[in-house]
Specification:
The structure holds two protein chains of two kinds. Chain A has two domains: about 120 residues; about 45 residues. Chain A is built from eight helices and no strands. The radius of gyration of chain A is 20 Å and the shape is flat. By secondary structure, chain B is mainly α. Chain B folds into two domains: about 130 residues, no CATH class; about 45 residues, no CATH class. In chain B, about 80% of the residues lie in helices and about 0% in strands. Chain B has seven helices and no strands. In chain B, helix 1 packs across helix 4, helix 3 crosses helix 4 and helix 6 runs antiparallel to helix 7. Chain B starts with 6 loop residues before the first helix and ends with a helix. Classes of the chains: A mainly alpha, B mainly alpha. Chains A and B meet through helix 2, helix 4, helix 5, helix 6 and helix 7 of A and helix 1, helix 2, helix 3, helix 4 and helix 5 of B.
């Protein structure tokens, strides 16, 4: 039970506070999503503090990517591996409190000025970037899998299922899991 | 367009979409919020995502927060965000606790790779689906298409950090939109 609550490395209160504060800082720098701060997170948690090894860090990110739910949950897995459930509270609260507070304030300010040229130029100007970001994300996700013919097949199946059917995305995901389990992706 | 009936419904729908979101929730959010619940048009979805993306923090969490706040204020924001995070958090922590045993099985590792490939396809499909919304862009279609291309190349090929893309390309794009809108 103690390992569950406090994790393998059992941090003291001061170290937990430092963990919380560092993630608070990263939260405000996380433009484009929490995942964009992983290089700095890795530098601090692995390099500076030595709370996780490189392998543990990468595995934490990969595990959260594979599990259902928002990618930001990799922050919770890192917290858990550093300091159990107390670590989860420190990293999740640190990552979410500053950014959500800012998002709420900014969006209410913007909503009151919806029709102004400034706000319309802001959202209208950013829309093409958002679509480009989606295309780039898709491309980057295929990176570790290039060179396997099955990869292109799975990407295509997913695109077709989403564009021309009403199927839940769970079906192509299940198909991908089966293809991968048979070892057709290395 | 319909609207969520209560914060409880928001919580339920966001929990449901989060649990279907392997490798990211964006594709599922588009399908659920735009196509199934009809709470947003494609245009509103892109707009919400743009705002969620340019603000610091996880895009999808920001999106849920803004969406919930729009209908039920703070209570709605909390309902949507906790729907997105609460149950998946329990799932991912259980997996983290079991990880040692799971990762050593080759079939599990293979299945994860297969799911990764499909997740890539889902995100690409989402991009293709919202592409037609650029017809209403203040930039006009050719310029907007050029910005999509420039962003994709900058992020996927040149590997610029997101901050530089938003500051660099984003400010050019916003300035152009401003100029077109105020003509």
């Amino acid at each position: 039970m103690n390992t569950l609550l406090l994790g393998p490395g059992a941090l003291g209160a001061v170290e937990l506070l430092a963990l919380f504060l560092h993630f608070t800082l990263l939260s405000l720098l996380a433009i484009g999503g929490a995942i964009t701060t992983t290089p700095d997170m890795q530098r601090w948690v692995v390099g500076e503090r030595g709370w996780l090894t490189d392998v543990q860090f990468t595995a934490s990110v990969a595990l959260a990517q594979a599990a259902p739910g928002p990618n930001v949950l990799f922050v919770a897995v890192i917290g858990y591996n550093v300091a159990g459930l107390a670590g989860v509270v420190a990293t999740m609260a640190g990552s979410l409190l500053p950014s959500t507070t800012l998002a709420l304030a900014a969006t209410r300010w913007g909503a009151a000025r919806r029709e102004s040229v400034g706000v319309r130029a802001f959202t209208g100007g950013l829309a093409p970037l958002t679509i480009g970001m989606l295309l780039a994300t898709g491309w980057v996700l295929t990176e570790p899998l290039r060179g396997y013919p099955a990869t292109a097949g799975l990407v295509l199946v997913a695109v077709v299922a989403m564009l021309w059917t009403k199927l839940s995305p769970l079906w192509p995901i299940a198909a991908g899991a089966i293809v991968g389990a048979f070892g057709w992706l290395g | 367009m319909r609207a969520p009936a209560s914060p409880t419904e928001l919580f339920r729908v966001f929990t449901g979409l989060a649990l279907q979101g392997f490798g990211g929730v964006l594709a599922v959010a588009q399908r659920e919020l735009v196509e199934r619940q009809r709470w947003l048009t494609r245009e509103q979805f892109v707009e919400l995502l743009s705002v969620g993306q340019v603000l610091p923090g996880p895009n999808i969490v920001n999106m849920a927060l803004i969406f919930g706040d729009r209908f039920f204020g703070l209570r709605g924001a909390f309902a949507a965000v906790s729907g997105l995070l609460a149950v998946p958090l329990v799932v991912v922590l259980l997996l983290a606790a079991l990880y040692g045993q799971l990762a050593s099985m080759p079939a599990v590792a293979g299945a994860l790779r297969g799911m990764g490939a499909v997740a890539a396809g889902l995100v690409i499909a989402t991009a293709l689906k919202v592409l037609p919304t650029l017809r209403g862009s203040p930039l006009g279609v050719p310029l907007a298409a050029l910005m999509v291309l420039a962003t994709t190349v900058a992020l996927a090929w040149l590997r610029w950090p997101m901050v530089w893309v938003v500051l660099g390309l984003g400010s050019v794009s916003m300035a152009l939109a401003w100029w077109r809108l105020s003509k």
